[in-house]
Amino acid sequence: MADVFEVDRYDAAGRLGELEVPRAGVTVETPALLPVINPHLQTVTPAQLESEFGAEILITNSYVLYGSDDLRDPVEQQGLHDLLDFSGAIVTDSGSFQLAEYGEIDVTTEEILEFQHRIGSDIGTPVDIPTPPDASREQAESELATTQDRLATAAEVDTGDMLVNAPVQGSTYPGLREEAGAHAAESGLDVFPVGAVVPMMNEYRYADLVDIVAAAKRGLPESAPVHLFGAGHPMMFALAVALGCDLFDSAAYAIYARDDRYMTVRTTEHLEDLEYFPCSCPVCTSHTPAELKAMDGEERERLLAEHNLHVSYGELRTIKQAIRRGSLMELVEARARSHPAMLDGYRALLDHTAQLERTDPVSKDTFFHLSGESAQRPEVLRHRRRLDRLEPRGDSILLTEGNDADGFDECWSVRPPFGPFPRALADGYPLTAQVPERLDTPAYEAAAAGVRRLVEAHPDTAFTLAHDDWPTSALADVPERVELWNLKSDE
């Protein structure tokens, strides 16, 4: 694996990074969007992507070029950058999409990689097998073995300074995805797309998507740049970035425009249903829905595609700023409220909190507790684990949500969702959290888990918990030997 990716900053597993693309002579800031360019039909041209949207990288299909009577000779003579009129990095797919759609293609990994290198691709792709979701394990294992053989073949092809993708397959089997990630990392290839996920996104199976991406990430080293193949809708960018995905390719901006569909970061609208544009991009501030509806189809399609791109690029800028501030998880939670399936995805993400915590910064901007899910965030898990490092002073300790009391050797504070901590830590992150007055039950249950962790680490110390009327489910997790005071009953 070439040393081409450098991480600048983390938030959860999300990261700001730089992907060096030697053949293009450019460095791409990640997370990055790769608009899909159809060589035969360009709703928005690559030159426009570069000049108007600041695109640093895009993706096109080398198999389409390879099989085109009109384009194969020109692209071999001119080179891909001149043909598309784009100076940034160009990624080429291999025909695996066509293989998934039609069952066969007439090109080998060697042939397509040599063609990609010949036409000037900056990041090429071998012919992997995109096993669909819910295939039998036998099929998934067999096709993964074929993909792995082709990665080995790809590593032997002389591609010069062209980077090469090592797709991570394995259908909906987390164990196979983790194994595939580890194998891909050992292949000597450079960029790691998680493949065959479009069917899951089309069916809004975001929880399943999270589980397989998390599994692939477990197999890959932290230094590996990860491409989520086909992740085209901005509503799920923040979720995918929080998992540690760095690159996203989108044909959705053009496909949706063709069907008069209008993207927002929360949903997709049909143009015919809109009376107002809920957006301030150049398209939406210069036109009304009625004006677009009255246009001829080609002009309307172009403007809708431009709007969809503005929304997509705008969301990535929002995500980058959130990582910079340390508020990515709050953004993910806000986006998760846009659709029930997105909420499932967010909750699945939190099932992997221990994995996210490994790269989550120990200090960042103020923690905002927004819901019961916030109690499962990496910061809460880290605080609970670090209780083992703290040594109570004395034999009798009061853990309280209220004021200190006489008769104890030491008094610690308790703050849901984090649990107990010495008073001296009160001004440190994340204990400076902004927490609503009306907390939900999971916040108290998380605090009780912290109490349990501390108490079990110090079996010879007597603890008293002075709580502000915690729910029964939280108190049930407090060890029996802890004396309980309900501060509300003492008022």
Automatic annotation (TrEMBL):
Name the gene that codes for it.
tgtA
Molecular function (GO) terms listed? pentosyltransferase activity; zinc ion binding
**Catalysed reaction, written as an equation:** guanosine(15) in tRNA + 7-cyano-7-carbaguanine = 7-cyano-7-carbaguanosine(15) in tRNA + guanine
Keyword match Glycosyltransferase:
yes
UniProt remark on cofactor binding: Binds 1 zinc ion per subunit.
Q: Which residues bind substrate?
A: 128, 196
**Chain residue ranges for the region called Disordered:** 123-142
Q: What is its EC number?
A: 2.4.2.48
Cite the active-site annotation: 93 (nucleophile)
Function comment = Exchanges the guanine residue with 7-cyano-7-deazaguanine (preQ0) at position 15 in the dihydrouridine loop (D-loop) of archaeal tRNAs.
Q: Which PANTHER family match?
A: QUEUINE TRNA-RIBOSYLTRANSFERASE
Q: Which UniProt keywords apply?
A: Glycosyltransferase, Metal-binding, Transferase, tRNA processing, Zinc
UniProt superkingdom: Archaea
Q: Name one GO biological process term.
A: tRNA modification
Homology family: Belongs to the archaeosine tRNA-ribosyltransferase family.
In the UniProt record, does the keyword rRNA processing occur? no
Pathway(s) of this molecule: tRNA modification; archaeosine-tRNA biosynthesis
Q: Which organism is it from?
A: Halosimplex aquaticum
Q: What is this protein called?
A: tRNA-guanine(15) transglycosylase
| Cofactor(s) recorded in Swiss-Prot or TrEMBL | Zn(2+)
Detail which positions bind Zn(2+).
Answer: 279, 281, 284
